[in-house]
Automatic annotation (TrEMBL):
InterPro entries the record matches: Peroxin/Ferlin, Peroxisomal_PEX28-32, TECPR1-like_DysF
Keyword Hydrolase: no
UniProt-annotated location(s): Peroxisome membrane
Matches recorded under SMART domains: DysFC, DysFN
UniProt protein name: Peroxin/Ferlin domain-containing protein
GO cellular component: endoplasmic reticulum tubular network; peroxisomal membrane
GO molecular function, one term: identical protein binding
Keywords assigned by UniProt, alphabetized: Membrane, Peroxisome, Transmembrane, Transmembrane helix
Topology versus the membrane: Multi-pass membrane protein
Gene behind the chain: KAFR0A06650
Length: 442
């Protein structure tokens, strides 16, 4: 009876070694079911779950997981040390000490202990192989392989978290800033520290980046404004410490402007606003005008407060948490040919949806000073103004398709400021009442 029960239920999938191969060679091991005749009811229930997982996994994937399992164990241990995610931090500390000693005393170590190090590495390989074989024999189920794969994935995400936050545009700006700061880097290596100590400093910073005291130190230093500015000017990347206050102040200014406009206007008409984006370009010798900017200056698209803004095709209207809604009045973005009145235009048309590549630009020197409507040899930067009008209306009125009689009230809104701006309830109520009254008057 017990034998029949063992045949009907698979208790646990285990590795059976055909041959004892070392890590790095042929690690093929057969992954098969082993029936046990003396299992209890709980073991039988666990076997049903394991058998279902095993049966639902294709044989080719199962074989690949079998071959990958020993390497996953090694990778999990290495990532645990690099991310300082173990309760025992001494292996990570030992890793830093070994790196420190190896770089500081590289030549004496290689000269006097090089042959011993080779034998020591072989000895460590044998100990590692013994550890892996023991781990495989103890935890040989498909569920364990899945768990360790998830653990490795999470630790990889933690290890690479500083890099995954960077976009391609951030990396391009970082590369450009690094090239421009090359003279400072050369002077630093030549006068203050040797290349060996430079590599040592960078390595220790990278190895201890995820350590608890390194995280606390970074949080404390980041509270100082001059540290945030130093990082910004050295990398060209805004880590959230430079433009946050600027965006908040611009949001408050815009909110105040909108509320004052609504309070001062007594007509029963919806409010219309003009969104503004500035297109910035820099002249590169031998290349011409390009949207690639220096790492420490404004981005290629900004609002009037020099906050980074999306391109016109990616610009989205903000969503209000009330029944009010923003909707576009203009079908497309238009180029302001006057550039906010700075360029005289003789014709009646002052906007253009399809301008030329050089239309509507104001030219500046290398530091964005001395504006001029004409290009010259001393002008290295330029910008032009794009506008598009939207209005704040009642969402119900907009859904009914009622026409809106709007009044043109000019205001400049940026995407970042709009997302952070929420108007007072009485202000929104007044706008809503105007929209409804305008609809009924029709």
């Amino acid at each position: 009876m017990a034998e029949n029960l063992g045949k009907d239920h698979v208790v646990r999938a285990e590795f059976l070694n055909q041959h004892q191969y070392r890590i790095g060679g042929n690690t093929s091991k057969i992954f098969q079911d082993k029936a046990k005749s003396d299992g209890s009811n709980s073991n039988i229930q666990a076997s049903d779950n394991g058998s279902a997982l095993l049966n639902s996994t294709p044989p080719m994937i199962t074989k690949a997981l079998i071959n990958l399992y020993p390497y996953l164990i090694i990778l999990d241990k290495v990532l645990t040390i690099l991310t300082w995610s173990s309760s025992d931090i001494w292996p990570s500390v030992l890793m830093c000490l070994v790196y420190l000693i190896f770089l500081l005393y590289l030549h004496p170590i290689v000269k006097y202990l090089g042959h011993i190090i080779i034998v020591t590495l072989l000895f460590g390989y044998c100990k590692l192989d013994k550890y892996i074989n023991g781990a495989v024999s103890q935890r040989a189920s498909l569920e364990d392989i899945t768990i360790i794969m998830e653990r490795v994935s999470l630790k990889f995400d933690l290890l690479l978290s500083p890099l995954t936050r960077l976009t391609l545009q951030d990396i391009e700006r970082l590369m450009l800033t690094t090239i421009l700061l090359s003279p400072i880097h050369i002077l630093l290596i030549s006068l203050l520290m040797s290349p060996q100590r430079y590599v040592l400093t960078i390595g220790i910073f990278a190895l201890t980046y995820h350590s608890p005291w390194a995280k606390v130190t970074r949080r404390l230093l980041w509270k100082f404004k001059f540290i945030r500015k130093f990082v910004f000017y050295m990398t060209g990347l805004d880590m959230g410490g430079i433009s946050t206050l600027r965006r908040a102040s611009s949001a408050l200014l815009i909110k105040k402007k909108v509320e004052e406009t609504i309070e001062n206007d007594d007509t029963d008409k919806p409010i219309k606003f003009t969104y503004v984006l500035y297109e910035n370009q820099r002249k590169w010798l031998g290349i011409g005008w390009k949207p690639n900017m220096l790492g420490y200056e404004r981005t290629s698209w900004t609002d009037e407060f020099l906050n980074e803004a999306p391109m016109p095709k990616d610009f989205q209207l903000p969503e209000e948490k009330t029944s009010m809604k923003w909707k576009w009045v203009d079908a497309n973005w238009k180029l302001d040919l006057t550039n906010d009145g700075a360029i005289p235009v003789t014709g009646a048309t002052k906007t253009n949806e399809n301008p030329g590549i050089d239309d509507g630009f104001i030219y500046y020197d290398n530091g964005w000073n001395k504006p001029s409507a004409h290009e010259s040899f001393s002008k290295y930067t330029r910008r032009r103004r794009w506008i598009r009008t939207a209005e704040l209306v009642n969402d119900d009125t907009h859904k009914e398709g009622a026409p809106s009689n709007t009044e043109d009230i000019s205001a400049v809104l940026s995407e970042e400021a709009s997302e952070d701006t929420h108007y007072e309830p009485e202000v929104l109520t007044k706008v809503r009442n105007r929209s409804v009254a305008s609809h009924h008057s029709k």
